[in-house]
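Usage

Read records sequentially. Each one opens with the input sequence:
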Amino acid sequence: MTNRLLQRKQMVVDVIHPGLANVSKIEMREKLAKVFKSETDLVFPFGFRTQFGGGRSTGFVLVYDSMESAKKFEPKYRLARQGLVEIK
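and closes with the structure output:
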């Protein structure tokens, strides 16, 4: 879904990963950046939960249009998790 007011795309993502306990957020960011033709720094995955028994995870992803809008609307702790801002 496109959210023009916040200058981003937002979606719920199901990741199927048989044989793995879970998928790293870095790997997920790289693949989603390719799919949405965006930079890796503009993709913010969070809230992923693995279903009982493994093999599938569900979470939320935000893909911003620009770094300025990401820094404007994204909470500081999520920016710090990706190394874009340093919390003092």
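Summary fields computed downstream for this record:
- The CA atoms of residues 45 and 61 lie 4 Å apart.
- The beta strands are 2-3, 8-16, 43-50, 56-64.
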